Amino acid sequence: MPSTLSSAPPSPPPPSPPPHLLPPPHPSLAVLHLKPLPASFSWNSLFRSYSRSPNPSHKLHALHLYRSMLLDPFAPPPDHFTFPFVLKSCAFFAALSEGTQLHAHIAKLGFASNTYVANSLVHFYASCGLPLLGRKLFDRIPHRSRVSWNVAIDGYVCNGEYETSLALFREMQAFFEPDEFTMQSVLGACGGVGALSLGMWAHALMLRKLDKDTVVADVLINNSLVDLYCKCGSIDLARQVFEKMPVRDLASWNVMILGLAMHGCVEEAFEAFSRMLEVEKLKPNSITFIGVLSACNHGGLVREGRRYFKLMVSEFKIEPQIEHYGCMVDILARAGFIDEALDVVSAMPCKPDAVIWRSLLDAFCKKNAGLEVSESVARQALEVGDDATSGVYVMMSRVYASANRWNDVALVRRLMSEEGIRKEPGCSSIEMDGAVHQFVAGDTSHPQSEEIYKTLNEVEQRLALTGYKPDTSQAPLVAGVDNVKEDSLRLHSERLAISFGLLNMAPGTPIRILKNLRVCKDCHTMTKLISRLYNVEIIVRDRIRFHHFRDGSCSCMDYW
After folding, report:
1. Going by DSSP bridges, is the β-strand pair 511-515/538-541 parallel, antiparallel, or unpaired?
2. Within-domain flag for 341
3. Does residue 418 belong to any structural domain of this protein?
């Protein structure tokens, strides 16, 4: 978005922006000129109308209307009602340049301490991915309202700062009772860190602090609860909340379908989709089909994936987005339909992103598709580039390792070192009694580290007696010495989290783990064996999906 605001009306006025940067004239503008000196109320009413409109072009009108207000000699000056509306439009577009100019206007006109204006600024900076700036403004608000706290908490949640948001929520309780908006953000934070018991506490708190009938009937709160329980690994609780909802909207069905797909409940996801169409008579949207295609992907159902993709385009006239193409590419490539997956990529109307190229490369690694095609896809992924570039190097090292090209493995390591690229460290978290315990690979910082490693050694000894031998095929970036590779694997973060769970959890309590990376093959095998030997259910949420380990098997059926 072009920067069009200024700190004061310029003199003389600058040339008008090119026509293609301006929205079409709106009939409401004429109302402002019916009187020689239109009141602030008229302008602010129009700002409010534009900023609250679901139409993006109308929100853009608010920004250009503000510029017109500054240039119009008969217009009143902006006041503390004007800025929240205009900032809302800036937040929608994440228009950082325009918003910071507005911030300068606010400071110049003396409205920075106004609670309503300051709340809008906190929300704006969080929408632009700058929650720390928002927090600085929040701390300076002289008279913080409940809305101030809600905006700050939600800003952290929207930027993935879940633990910080929960800490701020605890601070808030000393000043205000939470309302339904607070609790929606808290539920999102609990889902983000996989904190089931904390989420259940938040659910109980809502029923106790808020009107119970309101909570039960509120669609948005119930959608948040379904999402919470899905993300915390309790699909049964998610089903209970969903089935008891007196009213469900399309978002309710989307959350449930996505949750079922993420847990590998493929047939249930398809059934929910059919119920939505045939019983509720709701028309699916693009998010619905992301859920259905994800279910096909997690189940390895190629034929169903093709059918649902065709249904989306031909019957419901939904234009595929890059997420839908990504699902189809992953479905086909992982099932071995490499040529068809490449055909989908070449026919895409949009440019493939790094996620699609990495999906292809990952499938090539598993299917031994060949060095030449793997190197070609790796180059494409590196050209697109993103924060997960290290994953491309790691996968290429696996390709070279599987072909016994150890010189090339060493070359990959050197390139990563020279370019300052570091492999993303594995991190696993486990919740116990409302507290989240985090572990990284080789972690020794936990107060119970000595007991944890002792438990891990005991686990490995029991596994060895069953004939278990580590699979070092996915540890190619370490030295080519078997015992070094085994040491590398045994320090994986989820093994430390599992050992912590075995050490501290009550018998019969599932061990729930959240991992930031995909589970490696050896850890997957080991976790299956642990679930049988220790008669414990282990639920692992990795970057892609949930794994439910019970009695020596996994819900993913070893397809992930």
Report:
1. parallel
2. no
3. no
